[in-house]
Amino acid sequence: MKASLYxxxxxxxxxxxxxxxxxAGDVRVKVAYCGVCGTDVHIYHGMxxxxxxxxxxxxxxxxxxxxxxxxxxxxxxVGDKITVRPLDNRLEEASDKGYSHIAKKLKFIxxxxxxxxxxxxxxxxxxxxxxxxxxxxxLAALIEPLSVACHDVRMGQLKAxxxxxxxxxxxxxLLVAMVAKSKGANVIISEVNELRIKMAEEMGFEVVxxxxxxxxxxxxxxxxxxxxxxxxxxxxxxxxxxITTEVVGIRGRIVLVAIYGEAKPVxxxxxxxxxxxxxxxxxxxxxDYEESIRLITENNYxxxxxxxxxxxxxxxxxxxxxxxxxxxxxxxxxxxx
Length: 337
Ligand SMILES: NC(=O)c1ccc[n+]([C@@H]2O[C@H](COP(=O)([O-])OP(=O)(O)OC[C@H]3O[C@@H](n4cnc5c(N)ncnc54)[C@H](O)[C@@H]3O)[C@@H](O)[C@H]2O)c1
Ligand SMILES: [Zn+2]
Description:
This protein has 337 residues and is of the alpha/beta class. Helix content is 28%, strand content 27%. The chain is built from eleven helices and 17 strands.
């Protein structure tokens, strides 16, 4: 079998190795596709070399078919289409209060342990979600990031008829927008990159460029002064953070999806004045995966359009190099077979 290895210093190798028999409680998956996450790009750029044990196979946005099952695995059989929820919460403690997806000793599979950018991948059976016979395996590589979006929308308690502003139209923002639409919300995307604005418009979204149009005025007009019910901060920049407290209306919710590595100022007066709520959201729980699998299988939203390039495993180096140079890029997939 072939496996890619991140070697450090913006370098991947592809090596030939023996398939391993799955240990008790594990399965061996024949990996179909693995998406490249923003985190994988950070790893490639050497920003996570302290956390990743180099050389290491990375990747966690995958789909595949069970190839072998280890002792004691009864819920899954060879041939099942699956995806992995890459959270290893085996060290969950009582103090985690049952929130295993954010447990203190949580390990992220594909970062803290070997990932999916290889032909065959051995993983614990408890991480698996079964797909439908009809689930497209290419689209299924989007289930992990779409589950992030399902979690964000659930945490924001977005309801039909409400107005949602999604600030940031990258892959995660677009997926949040699609899930928000599936709830019957009126969705406005705020994005500054012209190519991404065009892409979002082609997907049928209403898009505002806040660098050119006053977003608050725009949403104010659209909602007869009520402003947004929920704002999703998915851009990860101060300008976007600043606008959240302005564009949200009375008793509105701000869902913080973007990951900030350091403390940032926010206008706390607005939290008092409008009785706002700020909601943190980190990865996903089982039910978010189930909703995500349903959405991908039904395929009623332009998921396919988000996938801008797919390259075979052997070309993983070129794929990562192209991510840095391709301005049209959104979601890149590795074809692991
Ligand atoms: N909470 C979680 O568990 C979780 C999971 C996955 C990703 N994330 C985070 O979500 C964020 C988005 O991920 P992504 O892959 O879509 O990132 P991305 O960088 O591709 O997208 C961000 C988008 O925001 C746009 N933008 C920049 N400035 C803006 C502004 N002032 N107003 C509006 N838009 C602006 C950019 O042009 C870009 O298209 C990242 O911070 C990522 O780390 C969080
Ligand atoms: Zn990811």
